[in-house]
Specification:
By secondary structure, this protein is an alpha/beta fold. The chain has a single domain, classed as Ureohydrolase domain (Arginase, Chain A, 3-Layer(aba) Sandwich). It is built from eight helices and six strands; from the N terminus they run αββαβαβαααβαβα. The strands form two sheets. It has a four-stranded parallel sheet, sandwiched between helices. Helix 2 runs parallel beside helix 3. The longest helix is centred in the first third of the chain and has 18 residues. The two termini are 26 Å apart. The relative contact order is 0.16. Keywords: Hydrolase, Manganese, Metal-binding. This is Arginase. InterPro entries: Ureohydrolase, Ureohydrolase_dom_sf.
């Protein structure tokens, strides 16, 4: 659906094969549910990327894992000189998280800060000498009052795992445009799109007799 919604262009659209969920519970392997299936999808993505050897990649997710193979490829493609912007909604970091962030030298900025200015991001790009950039866009960063096609916005089930985003679409668009003006954006991942209305409508239509005779 994301590919259908995206603007038409001359870039090839390639589908990574993902086996449809049939209701069978996923096995926990080494602490990871569905490890076998995830590795199969990762390997398939790697084969596709290596066959085409693109200079730029756009991923329509899936969750955050869909970017592992593409971003790893792009980092190698540009000699380890790939910067990464991670746009996502999270609770305030714990003390342990803050220590890790500080130790790794990861720069952070909140929605309120970015509402006023994107200068901190521009400075980070310049100070780090970033010539090529990948952007992770998790749609849960958007305010669910204006965009409901999100995991935790399921109208039929409570979801208390992740903080809801507060960013507005014009603000998000401005942010991405500013980043695109500052450096060469070579990767974009759009993840965690869950169109509940479309899913429920599809299920309804699938049960209407006249549509299935």
């Amino acid at each position: 659906m994301l590919a259908w919604l995206a603007p038409d262009n001359d870039q090839p659209l390639i589908k990574v094969p993902v086996q449809a969920y049939d209701g069978t519970p996923l096995e926990n392997e080494n602490g990871l549910n569905g490890r076998k299936q995830l590795l199969e999808q990762l390997e398939a993505a790697q084969h596709i990327i290596n066959a085409h050897k693109p200079d730029r990649i756009v991923m329509f997710g899936g969750d955050c894992l869909v970017e592992q193979a593409p971003f790893a490829y792009l980092n190698e493609r540009y000699g380890g000189e790939l910067g990464l912007i991670w746009i996502d909604a999270h609770e305030a970091p714990t003390e342990q998280d803050s220590e890790i962030i500080q130790r790794l030298g990861i720069k952070t900025a909140g929605t309120k800060e970015l509402m006023n200015s994107t200068e901190s991001l521009k400075e980070w790009i310049k100070e780090s000498g970033i010539k090529h950039l990948a952007i992770h866009l998790d749609l849960d960063v958007l305010d669910p009052k204006v965009f409901r096609s999100l995991l935790f916005a399921n109208p039929e089930a409570p979801y208390n795992f992740s903080a809801a985003g507060t960013m507005q679409m014009p603000q998000l668009l401005h942010l991405i445009k500013q980043l695109s003006e500052e450096t060469d954006v070579v990767g974009l991942g759009i993840t965690e799109h869950l169109p509940w209305d479309s899913i429920h409508l599809k299920n309804l239509l699938g049960e209407i007799p006249i549509l299935n005779n």
